[in-house]
Amino acid sequence: MSYQLIDGKGIAAKIRLELKEEVDYLIQQGITPGLVVILVGNHPASESYVKGKIKASAEVGIDSQLIRLPAEITETELLARIVALNEDPSVDGILVQLPLPDHIDADRVIQTIDPKKDVDGFTPINMGNLVIGQEAFIPCTPAGIMELFKRYEIDVAGKHAVVIGRSNIVGKPISLLLQQANATVTMCHSRTRDLLKFTQQADIIIAAVGREHMLTSDYIKPGAVVIDVGINRNAEGKLVGDVKFDEVAPLTKAITPVPKGVGPMTIAMLMANTVLAAKRR
Ligand code: GUN
């Protein structure tokens, strides 16, 4: 069966070009969107993600700044940095790259970010507004997945979507967005019994587990749409998804690869949220 390869990389590049036009216009109006990314310590994966965010900002015309802080920084010092950025009118978006070192309470850090500058959409105000369907910054990975559905004209209404993974960053928000788009959503997670029983009924699978190649062809109903959110490093150091792509892809209607699938969309949506924050200044 032939399947559609969902080109997240290509769509993300297109979105960056569209955003550049918007940013050029904003700059003409005297508003340069500003994004501050805070990296605490030097977690290797975080280094790579942050690099991508700064590079994309430059491409779009967003004035970005990377603040590197030592892993030993105290929580109090980090909170003080965030409070100062909340008060800085040239800063539209504040992103604290996760994970943070163990001695820092990540929830307290997130809750200190001004919700109007929370371009990750992680603060309780934005999360709460998402739950009740009010205007909110939507977390970037789930926003990117919904954008892929839109651009590929994949209608989720009435479909059975199975989300595997219940994280605050992906699983919970994508389940809400899918419900708002009239999908029927089943949430599965590490304690789900008989995962196969659920995925085999799914028209849409969102795999956000973080376990290399755990989704094999047995899990798939022929003709399903499969979105792979996993970013895992295999034994050879290569990036691999949660889905065993080679055996699953031929069964699907459409599927995202890893890399070049959801990952670039996450960054594109961060750019979109930052532009939105600047417009709301
Ligand atoms: N770590 C992994 N993904 C993300 C993300 O989307 N935002 C932040 N701030 N940290 C992350």
UniProtKB/TrEMBL annotation:
Chain ranges of the Tetrahydrofolate dehydrogenase/cyclohydrolase catalytic domain: 6-120
Cellular component terms (Gene Ontology): cytosol
Protein species of origin: Polycladospora coralii
Pathway: One-carbon metabolism; tetrahydrofolate interconversion
Residues reported to bind NADP(+): 165-167, 231
Self-association state and partner proteins as the record states: Homodimer.
Protein name, as recorded: Bifunctional protein FolD
Keyword Methyltransferase annotated: no
E.C. numbers: 1.5.1.5, 3.5.4.9
NCBIfam families in alphabetical order: PRK10792.1 (NF008058), PRK14186.1 (NF010783)
